[in-house]
């Protein structure tokens, strides 16, 4: 009981000092003189405390899969034509991730299989090919994307989306955004202090896939576009459509940069862009071959404008002039620079809190939390006297250590989250109550102070371990199997239990033993 | 100052015969839990936004809000499902809630319509917060949450079984399930919304309650070794009496921590805190009146070899 080796004492004090040090950053901003390699981790304040926007986005993978299957259809068509193999149809089956090639002659099945097998490739480092080729009946060959490959593509799509959202938000001037993957196909975006959620919503929700397609001026007027064309709506007037070729002349992926400026002649806002070498060459070829014709600039399936090609553009630099305002031109340039999202994102949940909210609510909440904490301290002092104060010291240290751990994890604290921590602290004194009651019992049973402390601690430890381990295991299970909000909560409780086991038992024991050695009391004040 | 303890809940050597009330405790608990389960199905929980889905806007009007004018303006904008509710002091706070929309685009347009209706009916009104949740997410969350809770009960069952005897494990988990149903019943009666925050409160309560049961059981286990011939009923009574000061002390601190939150914490904390207060009372009393009697019923002739005539060898 009394003996703490020097190393152990130093270890305990070091943990306390470390907790104090790591929780300090929460008191102020990062000081300017601090070198960059020094960590400065704080807990984040939840929306209810700081104001801002929270968006939960879900990726629509089916769009990516459809696009992949369409690309496979194109490849298969070229391969079949290259070998002059006849086919009656190329059919995509999105739910099954499959393209079925129906042959004209069943006798050509082996040849078709061989030709299609040549398209199978392995991406660097991939365990599965881009697709599997298999015969299906006598006259059909199936191209199927393997599950593993599909999962890899989905993961890539999520990561790419996060990068692009990050770029877009950084470009919009929002400070300290937090963007994280949640589950398989969801992304959480948190933007503290954002006052204009509409703009952010538009920035994130736009896919921003730009293409350049030739307008089919020979198409007959009417709602149905001829074969090889598609009828796309105009961006500023969705009722009006225009027939354009489905062949993409130049893709926005080949974009190098984009800026919003004003046209010096008209004073209108425009977006300047330049293409990389591949895009510039394609752009040069198309514009050279089609001087005098209409050329559509398409963004996410809507035609922004369809200007006449006056001269061939060979340097890959051009101007988009829709009906832009300063804001919409700036945002379009930002979207084009940041790149297109690999798949559409749907906003499934959103929350935004204005800065005016809650000065009152926060004050009420903070005061009542403080009152709760003070009541716990007062109760322990009245119930146990000196030993209660030892427990209170440990309680304050417990709070500091919890704060330090939550800061390192970059946890987000909301008002209810703080209430949870307060109650965890309230429960943490249970360990000290158990010890003190035990020591009291042992003393009443006639033991001398030191023996009573010795036996009390030893017996109470068993109870403390069993009760805390049970709760810990329950919350670890919740963490493993629960949904994300429950997991966050379970982590906080687990952090609380571990920190409690340290402060309420080890630390209090050290304090008690120091006190005993200094005083050698004739009886214990319990 | 405060060097000596100032008070105790019960004097040392208290001998309350708790097990006399074992049937009363079990019957009251069974009735309350059955009623709670019925309440859960009818009228059912007041689902919060997280689980119901929909849109809630918190609005502050420059003068006291004119609800009639707001209602008319919202109805004219085609938002017939809009529900209005006052919040805060001074009558300037209005909560506008809409039912869940088909998809993100419709939700966005509904929010825009509310904004323009507000501008007409209450010029100068500020939107303090907007919250929109799709309904599809919530079902998935709910099912996953229940599954996780069930698994964590299995975990508790396994650990107590491993550390004690199966009678203890069954007693603890049965009591936990009864506690949880009563908390749900309490939420139905008080109409405290069931959302992610109140789920956190329920989990905290389950943690507290588990802790409390293990402490009482731990003392029973110890006394089983110490008093080889004492009847199980007396032994359980003695164990509860011996741990009574700690039981009341711990529940007292947690209760005191939650009390200011419930009374003055404001709408963000009140629901959470009331569930905690209710849960502390239920969790503490169930350790004594449910978990211990179950142990007595299950263990009467098994845990206590001394209480039956020893078998002839």
Blueprint (SSEs and pairs):
The complex is a heterodimer of chains A (526) and B (313).
Chain A: H1 6-23, E1 44-45, H2 47-50, E2 52-59, H3 61-82, E3 87-93, E4 98-103, H4 109-117, E5 132-135, E6 140-144, H5 147-171, E7 178-182, E8 186-192, H6 197-205, E9 210-214, E10 229-234, E11 237-245, E12 250-251, E13 255-262, E14 269-275, H7 277-289, E15 295-299, E16 302-305, E17 317-324, H8 326-338, E18 345-353, H9 359-384, H10 386-409, E19 412-413, H11 415-444, H12 449-481, H13 484-519
Parallel strand pairs in A: 1-19
Antiparallel strand pairs in A: 2-8, 2-18, 3-4, 4-6, 5-6, 7-8, 9-12, 9-15, 10-11, 13-14, 14-17, 15-16
Helix pairs in contact in A: 1-10, 5-8, 9-10, 9-11, 10-11, 10-13, 11-12, 11-13, 12-13
Chain B: H1 22-41, H2 49-52, E1 54-60, H3 67-76, E2 83-87, E3 93-98, H4 104-121, E4 126-133, H5 135-163, H6 166-190, H7 196-226, H8 232-242, H9 244-264, H10 267-299
Antiparallel strand pairs in B: 1-3, 1-4, 2-3
Helix pairs in contact in B: 1-6, 1-10, 3-4, 5-6, 6-7, 6-10, 7-8, 7-10, 8-10, 9-10
What does the model show?
The complex is a heterodimer of chains A (526) and B (313). Chain A has 526 residues and is α+β, with helices and mostly antiparallel strands. Chain A folds into three domains: 6-51 and 357-519, Multidrug efflux transporter AcrB transmembrane domain (Multidrug efflux transporter AcrB transmembrane fold, Up-down Bundle); 61-151, Hypothetical Protein, Haloacid Dehalogenase-like Hydrolase, Chain: A, domain 2 (2-Layer Sandwich); 210-324, 2-Layer Sandwich (Gyrase A, domain 2), CATH 3.30.1360.200. Chain A is 50% helix and 21% strand. Chain A has 13 helices and 19 strands. In chain A, strand 3 (87-93) and strand 4 form a beta hairpin. In chain A, helix 9 packs parallel to helix 11, helix 10 packs antiparallel against helix 11 (415-444) and helix 11 (415-444) runs antiparallel to helix 12 (449-481). The radius of gyration of chain A is 34 Å and the shape is elongated. Chain B is of the alpha+beta class. Chain B has two domains: 18-47 and 137-306, Multidrug efflux transporter AcrB transmembrane domain (Multidrug efflux transporter AcrB transmembrane fold, Up-down Bundle), CATH 1.20.1640; 54-133, Alpha-Beta Plaits. In chain B, 65% of the residues lie in helices and 8% in strands. In chain B, a hairpin with a 5-residue loop joins strand 2 and strand 3. At the A-B interface, helix 6, strand 18, helix 9, helix 10 and helix 11 of A face helix 4, strand 4, helix 5, helix 7 and helix 9 of B. Strand 18 of chain A pairs antiparallel with strand 4 of chain B, so a sheet runs across the interface.
């Amino acid at each position: 009981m009394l003996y703490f080796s020097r190393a152990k004492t130093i270890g305990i004090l070091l943990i306390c000092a470390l907790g104090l040090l790591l929780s300090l950053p929460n008191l102020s901003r990062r000081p300017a003189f601090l070198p960059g390699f020094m960590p400065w981790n704080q807990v984040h304040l939840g929306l209810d405390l700081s104001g801002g926007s929270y968006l939960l986005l879900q990726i629509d993978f089916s769009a990516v899969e459809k696009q992949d299957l369409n690309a496979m259809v194109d490849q298969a068509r070229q391969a079949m034509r290259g070998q002059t193999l006849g086919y009656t149809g190329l059919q995509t089956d999105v739910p099954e991730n499959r393209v079925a090639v129906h042959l004209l002659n069943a006798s050509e099945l082996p040849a078709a299989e061989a030709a299609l097998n040549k398209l199978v490739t392995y991406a660097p480092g991939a365990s599965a090919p881009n697709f599997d080729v298999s015969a299906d009946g006598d006259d059909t060959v199936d191209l199927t994307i393997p599950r593993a490959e599909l999962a890899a593509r989905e993961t890539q799509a999520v990561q790419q989306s996060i990068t692009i959202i990050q770029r877009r938000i950084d470009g919009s001037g929002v400070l300290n955004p937090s963007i994280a993957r949640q589950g398989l196909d969801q992304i959480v975006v948190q933007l503290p202090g954002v006052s204009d959620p509409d703009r952010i919503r538009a920035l994130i929700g736009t896919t921003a896939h730009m293409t350049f397609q030739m307008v089919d001026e020979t198409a007959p007027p009417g709602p149905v576009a001829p074969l090889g064309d598609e009828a796309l709506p105009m961006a500023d007037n969705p009722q009006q459509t225009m027939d354009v070729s489905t062949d993409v002349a130049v893709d926005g992926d080949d974009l190098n940069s984009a800026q919003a400026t004003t046209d010096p002649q008209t004073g209108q806002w425009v977006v300047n862009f330049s293409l990389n070498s591949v895009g510039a060459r394609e752009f040069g070829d198309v514009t050279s071959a089609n001087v005098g014709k209409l050329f559509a600039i398409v963004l996410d399936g809507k035609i922004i404008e369809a200007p006449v090609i006056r001269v061939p553009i060979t340097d890959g630099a051009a101007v988009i002039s829709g009906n832009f305002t300063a804001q919409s031109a700036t945002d379009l340039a930002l979207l084009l620079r940041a790149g297109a999202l690999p798949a559409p994102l749907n906003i499934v949940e959103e929350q935004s809190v204005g800065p005016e909210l809650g000065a009152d609510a926060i004050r009420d909440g903070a005061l009542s939390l403080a009152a709760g904490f003070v009541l716990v301290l007062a109760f322990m002092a009245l119930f146990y006297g000196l030993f209660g104060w030892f427990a209170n010291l440990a309680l304050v240290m417990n709070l500091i250590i919890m704060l330090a751990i939550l800061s390192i994890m970059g946890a987000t604290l909301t008002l209810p989250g703080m209430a949870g921590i307060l109650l965890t602290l309230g429960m943490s004194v249970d360990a000290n109550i158990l010890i003190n009651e035990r020591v009291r019992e042992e003393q009443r049973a006639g033991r001398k102070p030191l023996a009573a402390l010795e036996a009390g601690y030893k017996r109470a430890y068993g109870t403390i371990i069993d009760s805390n381990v049970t709760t810990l295991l329950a919350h670890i299970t919740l963490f493993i199997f629960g949904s994300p909000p429950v997991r966050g909560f379970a982590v906080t409780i687990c952090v609380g239990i571990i920190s409690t086991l340290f402060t309420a038992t080890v630390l209090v024991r050290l304090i008690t033993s120091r006190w005993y050695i200094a005083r050698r009391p004739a009886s214990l004040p319990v | 100052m405060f060097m000596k303890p100032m008070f105790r809940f019960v004097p040392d050597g208290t001998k309350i015969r708790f097990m006399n009330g074992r049937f009363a405790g079990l019957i009251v608990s069974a009735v309350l839990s059955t009623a709670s389960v019925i309440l859960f199905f009818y009228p059912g929980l007041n689902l919060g936004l997280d689980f119901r889905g929909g849109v809630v806007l918190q609005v502050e009007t420059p003068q006291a809000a004119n609800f009639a004018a707001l209602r008319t303006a919202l109805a004219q904008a085609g938002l017939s499902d809009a529900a209005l509710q006052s919040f805060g002091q001074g009558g300037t706070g209005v909560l506008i809630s809409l039912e869940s929309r088909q998809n993100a685009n419709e939700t966005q347009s509904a929010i825009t319509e509310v904004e323009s209706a507000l501008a007409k009916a209450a010029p100068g009104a500020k939107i303090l917060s907007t919250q929109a949740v799709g309904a599809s997410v919530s079902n998935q969350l709910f099912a996953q949450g229940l599954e996780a809770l069930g698994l964590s009960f299995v975990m508790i069952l396994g650990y107590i079984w491993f550390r004690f005897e199966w009678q203890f494990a069954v007693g603890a988990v049965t009591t936990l399930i009864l506690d949880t149903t009563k908390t749900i019943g309490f939420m139905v009666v008080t109409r405290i919304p069931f959302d992610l925050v109140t789920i956190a409160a329920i989990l905290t309560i389950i943690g507290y309650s588990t802790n409390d049961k293990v402490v009482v059981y731990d003392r029973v286990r110890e006394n089983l070794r110490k008093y080889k011939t004492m009847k199980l009923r007396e032994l359980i009574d003695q164990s509860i009496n011996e741990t009574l000061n700690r039981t009341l002390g711990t529940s007292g601190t947690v209760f005191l921590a939650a009390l200011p939150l419930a009374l003055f914490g404001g709408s963000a904390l009140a629901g959470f805190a009331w569930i905690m207060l209710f849960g502390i009372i239920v969790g503490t009393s169930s350790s004594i009146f449910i978990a211990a009697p179950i142990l007595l019923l299950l263990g009467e002739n098994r845990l206590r070899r001394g209480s039956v005539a020893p078998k002839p060898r």
